[in-house]
Amino acid sequence: MTLRWLRAPFDVLAIFTGAKSFVDNPVLGSAYLNRLGLHAWRLKAAHALAGRRRARLARMIAADLREEFDRDGTVQVRGLLPAEEFESLRSSLLEAALEGREQQQGDTITRRVPIGPAMRRRFPGLDALLDSPRWKGLMAYVASTRSEPLYYLQTVFGGVVDGPPDPQLELHADTFHPSMKAWFFLTDVAEGERPFTYVKGSHQLTEARVRWEQTRSEAVLRDGDRLSQRGSLRVTEEELGDLGLPPPTQYFVPANTLVIADTCGFHARGDASGPTVRVEIWAYCRRSPFLPWTGFDLLSWRPLAQRRAEWALAIADRLDRWDLRKQHWRPVGARRALER
To answer: Which residues contact 107 (CB under 8 A, 6 or more apart)?
Structure first.
């Protein structure tokens, strides 16, 4: 009881952060407060601020790509790099044995290699790509912030182990506020190879979406699944029609394609009938949604920004040793990207 009261001020302050878990915070998860409109207020405020930030970042992105994103919630750029430049980068990354971490979700293994200063020095083409104005502009606009994303070389091995269904196959929103994930594919993603799947237009905060979120926030602790209770709300394809949304689109794309998405929109990993593998440069950015400015982020200062992905793993390791948080990413040593 004492601990709960000590935590109470922090639970209240979390209203004004990106905290999303209904089950871990009794304020955010309160059916009574959410019935009064707490979750809906956070939703509307976060989206309104993101819209204002994007308006100030609009000059950083080409008009056609901006229109595509504003309409769909995703941007797709095929042939991002010149063919020779891409092949040089692709072959160097695929052939290198790099220290990585793996996590299993269902029958899927995801391996990540954090992209830090040493890796950027080793692969100058990668460093040039991540520092290019076009790349930075796309990331900033979709993320609604100029904060530097976290970058990883990521391999997804689907259907390679026994396990329950992969939770990433379910349509879901990562959180209640606009956020960004990006995939620059180093290998082709063909039909049936667990492609990125997105419900176009689901990033837009319509009245139907607000009502749906309000209803879910009131009942999620009573009859929601574990991941929804932690703030990543699941949605069925049958519900999409009631929300005025189209069926999901699967992104079958060739290598050298960049796909960026606002992951408050509904998305998933496509299913497959057999084992699959894909390799990508994966980017992630989720800053506090209630900041009105687009910059002023100390962690985006270059000496810090390029080390954040590595530091995140080191912090998780330390918390694991202190028994404060279970570490799900296990070291697997140096391996090539396509090597199991």
So the answer is: 158, 159, 160, 161, 162, 163, 164, 165, 166
